[in-house]
Queue: 2 jobs
Job 1
Amino acid sequence: MAIPVPSWQLFIDGEWREPVHKNRIPIINPATEETIGDIPAATAEDVEIAVEAARKALVRNGGKDWANATGAHRAKYLRAIAAKITEKKSYLAKLEAIDCGKPLEEAAWDIDDVAGCFEYFADLAEAFDSKKKTPVSVPMDTFKCYVLKEPLGVVGLITPWNYPMLMATWKVAPALAAGCTAILKPSELASITCLELAEVCRDVGLPSGVLNILTGFGPEAGVPLVSHPDVDKIAFTGSSATGSKIMTAAASLVKPVTLELGGKSPIVIFEDVDLDKAAEWALFGCFWTNGQICSATSRLIVHESIAEAFLEKLVKWCKNIKISDPLEEGCRLGPIVSSGQYEKVLKFISTAKDEGATILCGGARPQHLKKGFYVEPTIITDVKTSMQIWREEVFGPVLCVKTFTSEEEAIELANDTHYGLGAAVLSQDHERCERLTKAFQAGIVWVNCSQPCFSQAPWGGKKRSGFGRELGEWGLDNYLNVKQVT
């Protein structure tokens, strides 16, 4: 049964508003390649209106309506949003599946996480009331000193297409909890559920202008948002190339940015593992969300003594992964998000082959699916560290493999990357795991697992994977200014 896609407008100042230039962007279902609707295309003129609305909301009634209200006041809205999202979970998950190609079951888990994230930051907003004024001990009795934590102001939030509603929530929830007002610019490749978030905000009575949502292309909507002098901070999740451009644009205004960028994360598997459990984590870590995860552990580094048996097991398991329309029951791998991304993934695979690597399994369109942007789960061996497939982020279901003989070699291979988002180690030797945890040049380390993520724990990387942390108390700090008072 076809799922109706609403024809939304831009969400500005608590109202649906047609873009100034009235342009629309088609929505393509990646499973069928069919156009299923369209979204509004914002431009600089719309950004101007949205920023003005956010600025007015920030200072309305002397800030008492939002920025200077109690955390408990803001928490009521965050909890109401969470409850409404839970109520609409089934509908939102289906929209997400047809918009970005994510298997329906995974999309439903994401919507649970969205609600959980709003609830968590509601808790932090309430707790913030007792923490926003903190005394500081100074060595002279003549003076008293304390620190105030205050909302940064109007923030621009730019989010990706792989977890459309969840990645938006990672930014929206803490920004609102802190007392900021915001303009959210989701990816033009998957924006439907972010527009649904706007409708949820209307339903719960969120004060007008506190959250504004502009869909559109990066150059037309994202660039004017980043460079706007009345936007006090930019938080971005996406590619390293775009992150670099955002950082450059923000630098001219000395505007703070938080960047969560790409990754080429390693998963190191030692010879003492349970092969079945290790195989499950290796496949999950790379092929979850159709392989389109910034933190995907897409470089498998396996001890040479178990490599042959382990790879045989991986290939066997890959052949049992159900690749289908995301709405089909039991789907475990859906399509790549767009034709452009699909071609990019296939080009990575063909280049690996041209450079001398071996396509151990997958590497092409599944034969039973004639339409849709599908790529089989792919394992590539005989990889050299100079190859593109080892060095660059694919953002698709592609796992490249190297073997190692010593712990030192494993660490060297793991850190042989410009990126530093995640890293995983699998071994029954706890001391060894501890050594690798300390040696990994990454912001997130998984021990005997890959990819678990919790709203309570910080998320972010180092090197070219960006800087700053989302989630946890660190996520709230992203949107707060520290003021010393003496």
Job 2
Amino acid sequence: MLGILASATGTAGGVAYIALKGNKEVGWNKICNVYDKFCRYIATSLALSLFATLLLLVLSICSALSKRTP
């Protein structure tokens, strides 16, 4: 589950980067200056996804350590 969540977070980061900077090689323009609300939403969702990834990582480590202790 952690791998899937981390992969989704990375994908969202890639979309956010393309929206912010654009890609001139393939002809994609920046869209954050046109669709400001979209960029705020994707930034919020990326921050929440990063938080969820870190929280799941901490919970997984705690779970693994609790099973090791007698």
